[in-house]
Predict the structure.
Amino acid sequence: MRIAIPVDEQSMESGVCPSFGRAPYFLFYNTVTEESYYLDNGAVASQGGAGIRAAQVIADHGAGVLITPRCGENAEEVLRRSEVLIYKSIPGTAKQNIDAYEAEQLVLLSDFHPGFHGHEK
Amino acid sequence: MKNSGVRIAVLSGKGGAGKTLLSVNLAAAAGKSVYIDCDVEEPNGHLFFKPQIARENDVTVKVPFVTESLCSGCRKCVDFCKFNALAFIKSKPYVFEEVCHSCGGCMLLCPQNAIAERNKAVGKELEGVSQNVTVKTGILNTGEASGVPIIKKLLEACCDCGEPVFIDCPPGSACIVMESIRDADYCILVAEPTVFGAHNLGMVFDLVRLFKKPYGVVLNKCLEGENPAEQFCAEHKARVLGRIPFDSELGMLSSEARIAVRESERFGALFSNLLKTVMKEVRHEAASYTQR
């Protein structure tokens, strides 16, 4: 199983980024091989649809699980249709979140915000 | 150049500064005229005019429609979309209609011709009459991201109607305001006598200068004492067209959705004078523009 986490820094000790679509990096972690790699989030500078693009990257990299503090409706749509499960992150590092997931201590994220697109005036 | 046919946009950097008060009363003072409410997210000019609605049309935009049986899953459309309105799910494109900007690029690019366009309603335009004033109102459907298509529709039809047109803009200085002033001959900036009011005046001041529009300022809610918006005008050499006092009678009329020009002699005179000043400025600007 491959896990994806939005992170502030390219480190297992990094905190989980409070934003999903606008996170600077994504951490991908393989629970079988215990290998990990980081990816720059190309969606970070998107004018709009950052959540959709970020979710696309998660799906394209074959992740089965996303651990994130929050997620927008559009990203959720892409992830659900791509059969990626979304778990709510806990305070702490990326590593602590992976450990919590493996110990089955994380819960599925259930509230998805309507996004921030088009709300500027 | 006559007064007929000129398009005057009324804008401000914030809501509640007096755009609707001013544009409704200028249109009412002008007699035979057109009032267009471009504040499509929360149109309120119709509350004052209470027009008899004669015409109502849906406003639509084009959104892509994918015929999956024709799609080869090449992903070109998804990679092309700069707005991220297309996702690639299980080897097929998936459309997020509310993110789409209707550019049509995906349709042009598709090597299989699997993408067609269909109309999607984003709002309405309404037209009615209140005494001599033709009242046009745009309404954006709840949840839609952009009112620009509705504003385009509202403004395209009245390029040569021969009557003065008063455009009640949305607040701020974003895309929808740019669209509202794009074809305006003159812009009136409305400002409140506060530090915040002066800051917001600065936003629309920058915008009309960027668009190279002739403009003037109307100071609203004027009281005795200092007026930061007036100071802004002095510092930036912005012409002050007139002042509307902070007045309980005017406030009362507005709160009851009554048009001051039609109900009060005092304000009838005030807005008629303001209209004269504006029209004089418009003619002057039009003349100097032709010389340039």
Observations:
- Chain A has one domain: 2-102.
- The interface with chain B takes residues 43, 46-50, 52-53, 55-56, 59-60, 74, 77-78, 81-82, 117-118, 120-121 of chain A (CB under 8 Å).
